[in-house]
Protein MIS12-like protein (Pyrus ussuriensis x Pyrus communis), 244 residues
Amino acid sequence: MEGSESEAAFNSLNLNPQLFINDVLNVADDLVDDAFDHFHQQASTFLKTEGTDRAQDLSRGVDIIRKKVQSDLDKKLAVWEQYCLDYVFQVPEGFDPAKDDEPPVNASLCQNAFVDADLDAELDLLRNELTEVGKENAALNREIQSLEGQSASRDRCSALVNATLQQYDLNSYHEMFQEMVKTASELRMKVGKLQTEKTEETERLKIGWINNEHRDPSVMEIRRGFCNAKLEDLEAFIAHMKNM
């Protein structure tokens, strides 16, 4: 760039690109030095090497790492410096900063660029619409909360009704079962009573038949015992008992 039109253009503006690049390189070197000084201090504290033989080993190790990082950084910064000189700080051919053919910018035009009545009106309209939408949204939220409350109330009522009906059904089944037990007990009592009455009636008829003095005289021997009864009399007695 030295001796070129770009150098002349920057000199006319009292600018020096090389000084800018040198300042950037110096700042980068200072940052690297500060970073490794801090790294050395933290490593010494963490490893507790201060005042020991290992302090020199740590210093040599940090210096080796610093030289490696500094070497790589210098190579990249050299490429960056050349790129800036070849492209960033090059001006178009024939550029003359002393010429200023462009008309001055009207300040009112800049102001008008930021002031637009129609745009402000549209923004106000949008703000009003957003406000209305917010109000409608709040009203819908209140309505939804009210409906949710009503739904919860109906659910509680339904649960109470179902519980009541279930309890009623359980009571009905219990009462029906108790009634069946009572009916079965009464039926057993009646059947037992009928059996008792039938047994008593049968015994009464037997006793009456035995004590009947007008029946066949041959049967009278039964009252005296079966030991003296004849075979024909016993067969007649058995046949008579079967027919009863």
In short: Helices lie at 5-12, 17-47, 54-88, 107-114, 117-210, 231-243. DSSP finds six helices and no strands in the chain. Residues 5-97 form one domain.
